[in-house]
Amino acid sequence: MMIFNKPLYIYLYPFPKKLTLTQKQILEKEFPFYKKLSNKKKIYFEHRVKGFLNYYEFIGKEELMITEEMKIIIAGTYIMLSFGMRHYLINIFKVIIIYPSAYFSNSNQQYHKGEFNPAMKTVAFSWEDFILGHQSTNDNINLGLHEFAHALHFHGMKSNDPSAILFYDEFNKVITYFKDENLNKKLSEQGYFREYAYENGFEFIAVILEHFFETPHLFKTQYPELYQHVSSMINFSEKNFDELQSS
């Protein structure tokens, strides 16, 4: 159900799932975003992280041992990106594959740092690059946000749940900045978004979401209209960004 082009409600958890103390401590340590949430929203965030851990399978490659911290950081990244969405668990992917470092992908016979493969229902990461992007919070490069953005984009194209509809409707406004030759040229010349954003529409939205989370105030100052479209696309609360930047 939608009202004013937004889901009628986002969080409705009469019996929220609980994380262990250790898991919550990892969130506190690794996510300023989570740390600055209200107590009520922390409960919602924890519930969603637990739901993510229960819903998706994690597989380590090349003898990589997947730790609880790795799973929490990956889950927290996805939940942060999708926190404004009513339906946050999507079946576009079912498995998360983690390699120690860049790996050779059979899908296109190239080395990758990460990829979303809808045919195989997988999201794959180089842990070395994932954690580097997670720890570098203002360079606008975040592998986890990037690949999960691809998954949410694909979900928006295929699903009719309210959050997917909202995502795709606003995406069509955002993508105008890529398709319009003059707007595209202007963005490219100004240099805020890295060049990889202009590869295609899928990369454009993924790179933009990296910038949206890592340097939101700069994004809003330089491109207020585009910023608002992206904010609406993921149904995100402006207040959460203000809290994040105050940490």
TrEMBL record:
InterPro entries: MtfA_fam, MtfA_N
SUPFAM superfamilies: Metalloproteases ('zincins'), catalytic domain
Molecular function per GO: aminopeptidase activity
GO annotation, cellular component aspect: cytosol
Family annotation (PANTHER family): MTFA PEPTIDASE (PTHR30164), PROTEIN MTFA (PTHR30164:SF2)
The protein's name in its UniProt record: Zinc-dependent peptidase
Species whose genome carries this gene: Flavobacterium bomense
